[in-house]
Design goal:
The chain is α/β, with parallel strands linked by helices and 249 residues long. The protein is 51% helix and 10% strand. A five-stranded parallel beta sheet has the order 2-1-3-4-5, sandwiched between helices.
Length: 249
C-alpha cells in the first residue's frame, strides 16, 4: 500500500509541472495570435470589411481629424444605434469612427498598419477593443491585454503627440459571474496598468450596471451592444475626460 501511495504521489508531482507548461504554452499561443496583425478580407472577392477599410483609409487622408474612435462593433454602432448621440456630442468636432463590427485586437493592428491613421495626427484616440477576443475565441486576459498594448504602441509610432483614452471593455452578459464578463473584468485589471502620461485609462462600466451588478436589456438589449440609451451613457461619462484631453475649456 505504501508503494502504491508513493507511486501516486510521484505521478501527481510530475503531472503538475506538465499541466503548468501546457497552460503557459496555450497563453503564449494566444498572445501571439492577438498581437499578430491579421485582416478579415476574403480571397478573390471584396467583402464589407475590406470596403469599409478602404473607405476609412480614404477618409483618414481627407480630414483634419482631432478625435478618432477605434474599436469593434460597439464603436462601429455609433453610426447606427448611437447616431443621434454622436451628432450631439461629436457632430461639431472633427471626429472619425474607426470601429469595425467583429474585430479583435489583431484586426485593429492590421488596419493601423494599412493606412487608417496615415496622414492623421488626432489629438485624441478613444480606444476600446477586446470583447470579441473573449467572445469569439476565449482568449485569456494576458493575450487581450498584450494585443491592446501593441495597438497603443502602433498609435504612438504613427502619431507620437496623440493622447489615448483607453476604455475598460464594457460589461457583457446579464450576470456579473458570467465567464465572459469575468474574463473581460480580469482583462480590464491588466489594461489599467497600461496608463501613462500619454494613455488615460477610464472605467465607466458601473454606469451601465444595476446595483447588484446585473446588466439591463434596457441598456444593452442583447447584453453586449448598447442601444441609444447606452450610447448616451457612454458619451456623458467620458465627456469631462475627453474635454480635458482635447484641451477644451
Amino acid at each position: 500500500m505504501c508503494r502504491n501511495l508513493l507511486f501516486l504521489l510521484t505521478t501527481a508531482m510530475l503531472l503538475v509541472p506538465a499541466t503548468r507548461v501546457r497552460a503557459d504554452s496555450e497563453i503564449d499561443n494566444a498572445i501571439k495570435t492577438a498581437t499578430t496583425p491579421s485582416h478579415r478580407m476574403k480571397s478573390g472577392e471584396k467583402n464589407w470589411w475590406q470596403e469599409r477599410h478602404e473607405q476609412k483609409v480614404a477618409a483618414a487622408k481627407q480630414g483634419d481629424w482631432e478625435l478618432i474612435f477605434l474599436g469593434d462593433s460597439i464603436t462601429h454602432s455609433w453610426e447606427n444605434a448611437g447616431k443621434q448621440t454622436w451628432q450631439q456630442y461629436y457632430g461639431k468636432r472633427k471626429a472619425l469612427n474607426l470601429g469595425f463590427s467583429g474585430d479583435r485586437t489583431e484586426h485593429v493592428l492590421w488596419r493601423l498598419d494599412h493606412g487608417e491613421l496615415d496622414g492623421c495626427k488626432p489629438k485624441v484616440v478613444v480606444l476600446m477593443i477586446g470583447t470579441n477576443n473573449t467572445g469569439h475565441r476565449k482568449d485569456p486576459p494576458q493575450a487581450i491585454a498584450a494585443g491592446v498594448k501593441k495597438i497603443l504602441e502602433r498609435i504612438e509610432a504613427k502619431s507620437p503627440q496623440t493622447k489615448v483614452l483607453l476604455l475598460a471593455i464594457f460589461p457583457r452578459a446579464a450576470d456579473k459571474n458570467d465567464p465572459q464578463r469575468t474574463n473581460n473584468d480580469k482583462t480590464n485589471a491588466l489594461l489599467a496598468k497600461l496608463a501613462d502620461d500619454r494613455v488615460t485609462y477610464l472605467d465607466i462600466n458601473e454606469r451601465f450596471l444595476m446595483p447588484d451588478g446585473t446588466l439591463s436589456k434596457e441598456i444593452m438589449p442583447d447584453l453586449l451592444h448598447p442601444k441609444q440609451k447606452g450610447y448616451a451613457i457612454w458619451a456623458e461619462a467620458i465627456e469631462p475626460t475627453l474635454k480635458d484631453l482635447l484641451g477644451e475649456k
